[in-house]
Amino acid sequence: MKNMLQQLANNSQKAIADGVYEITEKLQRSKNNLVDEIRKNKHASLITEVKFSSPSLGSIRQISDPIEIAKLMIQGGAIGLSILTQPHLFNGSPEYFQKIRKQVKAPLLMKDIVIDKIQIDAAEKIGADYILLIQTIFDKKFANDIDEFIAYAHKKNLMILLESHTKNEFTRSMKTDADILGINNRNLDTLEIDLNTTKEILKDRNEKRIILSESGIESAKDIKFLYECGADAFLVGSSIMKSKDIKRNVEKLVLSI
After folding, report:
1. Active-site residue, 214 included
2. Of 57 and 124, which is predicted with more confidence?
3. Which tens digit of pLDDT belongs to each residue from 94-139?
4. Is 111 a catalytic residue?
5. CB contact at 8 A, 225 and 253
6. Quick count: other Cβ atoms within 10 Å of Cβ 171?
7. What is the Cα–Cα distance from 232 to 139, expressed in whole angstroms?
8. How far is 90 from 52, CA to CA, in rounded Å?
9. In the annotation, is 32 catalytic?
């Protein structure tokens, strides 16, 4: 599947035009600091993801109560949640995020394909602690604007997870003021996954910020492998959303370290 990245960016543009990010109610963010939670955690630091569909898998789980799912994830030991707000291909929405924010005290990441500051404004209103920015989106579409987006988010007291897929992207991300650096094991253009992506990028790690490994994580074995590669935390979505016992599956991954 080629050119998926462009399609994702186009979908965000459509969602903006459709008024998806026009939020009126303003919610408070978490009082917990995600970076501090990761640094002091003795087990695997999991950020688990509430998403019902994805471009690679299609429907992952029948759409149901996002609050119930979120609470099960927290009960299982997740230290933070990633919540999809992108309606196209992911069946996400800011409304799901708001429902969870009102019920969950843990740090929350607004997971979306951010291409416009309107989305950052929405993240502030729905009570997000973090937003996702994708290095390759800015490399291909916005040139040097990534620093401007990060500064804009920081002014609104939003933290940044900046995601890379290649060594060159990661090197560029290290030069920014992002709060957490992510490594996506999935190539967003082809949707192919390789956990060795994290291994290759972190071969000569000299970065003190938290490194989050994302995508393709299904087992305790995967967590242990990525931890040994140098990852500090792990974003896990599809494998947990597909499971019949969400709480138990989160527990197994958390206790893998």
Report:
1. yes
2. 124
3. 999 999 999 999 999 999 999 999 999 999 999 999 999 999 988 8
4. yes
5. no
6. 13
7. 25
8. 6
9. no
Query: Of residues 51, 93, 173, 247, which has the active-site annotation?
Result: 51
Question: CB under 8 Å to 238, separation ≥6 — which residues?
Answer: 49, 51, 54, 57, 60
Whether residue 184 lies in the annotated active site: yes
Contact 42, 217 (CB under 8 A): no
- Both tokens of residue 142? 């916005």
The catalytically annotated residue of 215, 238, 249, 256 is: 215
Concerning whether 155 is annotated as a catalytic residue, the answer is: no
Q: What is the architecture, at CATH level 2, of domain 4-254?
A: Alpha-Beta Barrel (3.20)
- Tell me the H-state helices in 126-234: 135-137, 146-155, 167-173, 196-201, 220-229
Handedness of CA 105, 158, 163, 176 (dihedral sign): negative
Say how many CA atoms lie within 13 Å of 223 toward its Cβ: 22
Q: Tell which residue, 194, 168, 211, 171, has the closest CA to residue 45.
A: 211
Gap between the Cα atoms of 245 and 243, Å rounded: 5
Choosing from 111, 164, 169, 213, the catalytic residue is: 111
Catalytic-labelled residue, pool 12, 45, 163, 199: 163
185 is catalytic: no
Q: Is 173 a catalytic residue?
A: no
116-to-32, 59, 252 alpha-carbon distances in Å = 27, 27, 38
Catalytic residue among 184, 185, 249, 256: 184
Side chain identity at residue 251, one-letter code = E
pTM of the model: 0.93
Q: How is the chain split into domains, by residue range?
A: 4-254
Tell me how far apart the alpha carbons of residues 14 and 86 are, in angstroms, rounded to a whole number.
Answer: 10
